[in-house]
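Field log, afternoon session.

UNIT: design team B
ACTIVITY: writing a sequence onto a fixed backbone
BACKBONE:
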């Protein structure tokens, strides 16, 4: 039995990852798989069952866990409310009057859907991309790639994504700083998408627009819920800082409060403007996907708590040091592998970032956490895009009847461009 406990900490971690990923592949939820992984982690690193229970309870009741769950829940409620009331579809329809350029319309429809995180969201914009793509006789693979790529350009920094919120919570990086760090990668992804997928699409034939005489106003009106969140967070953050100077007690307020308040206001606006029925509100609030995501978030925080309380990362750090494995390799490989196997951003963030951030602290590199976070997130992002288990890829391929092998032939090059941009961003942020 002692032999099992004396195994290298790195091997223990790899085995735990394999168990978690195996359970996910066997259709067990990520939340349940991570919880089992947390218990196995605690036991294997010699935590008593009592201490494991205390660690789990402490993580569940932690203020950070509660506020994180509140933010994610409100984001999903907003997303489902806009979809259920038809507001999301009206945003797409109203944009047709703003631009008649085929290239812009092909990119903007999946990009607009991408502003609101929802599982398999790419399938929602697929009919619009298909309708426009048919005018130019685009191949199924072309339509799939355009829809898939531009659906995910915001995922680097957009604050409504649970993966972004979770990254900020785990790293301690302020959400606005994180957005500044990551937003250049969205610009790069957009440019890469244009060069590799849109540049070859002819533009001389225009797409028919809407009949509205004021298309820009109509578009912005339908986009109000998202604009309310952006403006609301900025305004409330400034307000909180001003009043914190008057009442210092506000300094202890969680930085997520402006986002929580802005999301509540936006949800209220959607419900009021669309005259949503009580039955629809119940369906939005008691959505199975909502509870699954919350359980997943709690499980991630539990995994992080047990990881810290068992001192597993300290042992892993010493093992990496003695094995002379460069930390930068670990930062790239771990997120990429987990992302490739799961196809879920929250999965690679939740399972690998607690380890990465603790390894950085043990190596005395906590001051460079921003640079390493950019690198790790970019590696995971590429893994998610290339994952054959990514639900958006699976659904889009099925919708357009595209062949996955042909998709991969055209997907690896733009992903390589994203990886190169991530490495460049890493080195720039290390020098700043």
């Amino acid at each position: 039995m002692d032999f099992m406990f004396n195994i290298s900490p790195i091997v223990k971690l790899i085995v735990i990852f394999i168990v978690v990923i195996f359970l996910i592949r066997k259709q067990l939820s990520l939340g349940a798989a991570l919880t089992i992984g947390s218990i196995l982690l605690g036991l294997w690193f010699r935590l008593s069952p009592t201490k494991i229970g205390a660690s789990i309870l402490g993580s569940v009741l932690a203020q950070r866990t509660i506020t994180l769950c509140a933010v994610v829940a409100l984001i999903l409620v907003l997303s489902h409310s806009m979809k259920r009331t038809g507001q999301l579809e009206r945003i797409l329809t109203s944009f047709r009057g703003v631009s008649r350029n085929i290239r812009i319309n092909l990119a903007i429809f999946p990009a607009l859907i991408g502003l609101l995180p929802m599982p398999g969201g790419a399938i929602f914009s697929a009919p619009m991309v298909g309708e426009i793509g048919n005018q130019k006789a685009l191949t199924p693979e072309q339509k799939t790639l355009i829809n898939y790529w531009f659906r995910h350009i915001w995922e680097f920094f957009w604050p409504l994504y649970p993966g972004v919120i979770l990254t900020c919570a785990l790293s301690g990086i302020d959400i606005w700083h994180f957005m500044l760090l990551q937003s250049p990668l969205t610009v790069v992804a957009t440019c890469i998408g244009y060069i590799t997928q849109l540049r070859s699409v002819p533009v001389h034939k225009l797409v028919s627009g809407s009949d509205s005489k004021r298309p820009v106003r109509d578009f912005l009106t339908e986009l109000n819920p998202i604009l309310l969140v952006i403006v609301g967070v900025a305004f409330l953050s400034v307000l909180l800082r001003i009043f914190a100077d008057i009442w210092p007690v506000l300094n202890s307020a969680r930085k997520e409060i402006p986002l929580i308040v802005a999301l509540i206001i936006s949800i209220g606006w959607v419900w009021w403007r669309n005259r949503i029925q009580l039955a629809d509100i119940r369906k939005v609030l008691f959505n199975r996907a909502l509870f699954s995501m919350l359980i997943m978030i709690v499980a991630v925080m539990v995994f992080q708590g047990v990881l810290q309380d068992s001192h597993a990362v300290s042992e892993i750090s010493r093992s990496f040091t003695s094995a002379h494995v460069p930390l930068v390799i670990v930062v790239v490989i771990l997120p990429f592998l987990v992302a490739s196997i799961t196809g879920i951003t929250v999965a690679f963030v939740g399972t690998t970032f607690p380890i990465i951030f603790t390894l950085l602290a043990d190596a005395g590199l906590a001051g460079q956490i921003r640079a390493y976070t950019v690198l790790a997130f970019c590696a995971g992002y590429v893994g998610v895009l290339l994952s054959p288990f990514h639900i958006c890829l699976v659904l889009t391929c099925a919708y357009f009847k595209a062949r996955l092998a042909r998709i991969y032939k055209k997907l690896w090059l733009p992903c390589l461009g994203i990886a190169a941009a991530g490495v460049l961003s890493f080195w720039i942020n290390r020098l700043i």
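LOG NOTE: Residues 113 and 151 are 7 Å apart (CA to CA).
NEXT ACTIVITY: expression trials, pending approval
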